[in-house]
Amino acid sequence: MSAQKPVLDPNLRSGETRDFETSLRAKIVGQEEPVQALVDLYQVFCAGMNSPGRPVGNLLFLGPTGSGKTRIVEAAAEILFGEPRAVIKVDCAEFQHSHEIAKLIGSPPGYLGHRETHPLITQEELAKFHTEKLKLSFLLFDEIEKASDALWQLLLGMLDKATLTLGDNRRVDLSQTVIFLTSNLGGGEITELMGGGYGFIQSGDKPKVGLDEKVERTALEAARRKFSPEFMNRLDKVVVFHPLQREQLEQVLEIELGMVQRRVVFVAGGDGPAVWSAAFEASDRAARGVPFGEPVGDRAGATRRPGLHRLGSQPLQPHFRQRE
Ligand SMILES: Nc1ncnc2c1ncn2[C@@H]1O[C@H](COP(=O)(O)OP(=O)(O)O)[C@@H](O)[C@H]1O
Ligand SMILES: [Mg+2]
Q: Ligand 2 centroid vs 59 CA: distance in angstroms?
């Protein structure tokens, strides 16, 4: 009898990866390609197949504001490390000048204020959420189109060599780190393509045929126009997020509402079902009353969430006041 050959199937998933995928899909609506990109990356990492001397992955997320680019990183962190804030987040617009770069990497010894600057990216910060089982870190550069030249130089080095040299010459090893980069480039054109004002579209408004491809092409072309080939070549994957459609936005609302309600249960604690069933109803009514035609807050999708949470939890306050 001949021994059976092992089958190498790139689509096979370990149990851990399947669990990760299920949890991620419960938190992220749509965005099939980005979800797959993260699941693939996790699978490669778990199998120990990522290249040594490089970051675990260099991923560029493109797409309009409010489509879930930042959220997917936080959601993955929440699933893997139990904490959505287990991500070092660098808002590129905040690091325009050289003294601001010092906030990121610290200033050289001898400089005024050297001891007071605590670099944002350090080995300790990266290791903060490591567990016995999972020694992986997430580093997110948001809105990279706003990065200054000095920040670009740092970024190029990190993407290529998986190291960062701090102001005091200490080296940060990024070979156990996923580097996420996000950009809204092409977002305006995509919105125009959809013929709408916001980061989501009304289904039925426009024929959908070919729209997905057009959105992807528009985002990729915008990125290639703006970013150097040197940068693009260092990326493992470029993923385009699509504007959310009305039904998808409703699903996002369900997820967000679930989060508000879990918080209500937590705060109401031992007060029994009476308080929180009233509270649920009130928050549900308030949040669902939000017209879909206009996001809560302003144009930016990013402000939808706090707005929703506020609307969802404001009606609860009399209930809690009664308890005091
Ligand atoms: N695809 C999505 N799935 C689940 N929630 C989403 C999605 N897209 C947007 N959201 C919600 O909208 C908020 C703003 O999205 P965000 O990820 O910050 O957008 P951006 O693409 O501009 O980074 C999120 O915090 C989340 O509540
Ligand atoms: Mg964002």
A: 14
| Atom 24 in ligand 1: residue holding the nearest Cα | 71
State the CB neighbour count (10 A cutoff) for residue 214. 14
Strand partners, 17: none
Domains in the chain, CATH or no CATH each: 15-243 (3.40.50.300), 248-323 (no CATH)
Instruction: Return the pLDDT at 99.
Output: 76
User: H/E element holding 80?
Assistant: helix 69-81
Please say if the pLDDT value at position 282 is more than 70. Answer: no
**Residue 10 or 226, more confident:** 226
Please give the structure tokens belonging to residue 208.
């959908």
What are the pocket residues of ligand 1 if the criterion is a CB atom closer than 6 Å to any ligand atom?
28-31, 65-71, 182, 241, 244, 252, 255-256, 301-302, 304-305
Q: Decide if pLDDT at 114 tops 60.
A: no
**Which residue, among 271, 285, 256, has the nearest Cα to 319 in the 3D structure?**
271
Average pLDDT over residues 302-308: 47
Closest residue by Cα to residue 292 from 198, 214, 218: 198
CA distance 60 to 239: 6
Residues 6+ apart with CB under 8 A from 250: 292
For ligand 1, atom 27, the nearest C-alpha belongs to: 305
* Contact in structure between 262 and 78 (CB atoms under 8 Å): no
Band of pLDDT at residue 294, cut at 50, 70 and 90: very low
Cβ atoms of 161 and 58 within 8 Å: the answer is no
Instruction: Tell me the pairing of strands 163-165 and 171-173.
Output: antiparallel
Please tell me the predicted confidence (pLDDT) of residue 300.
42
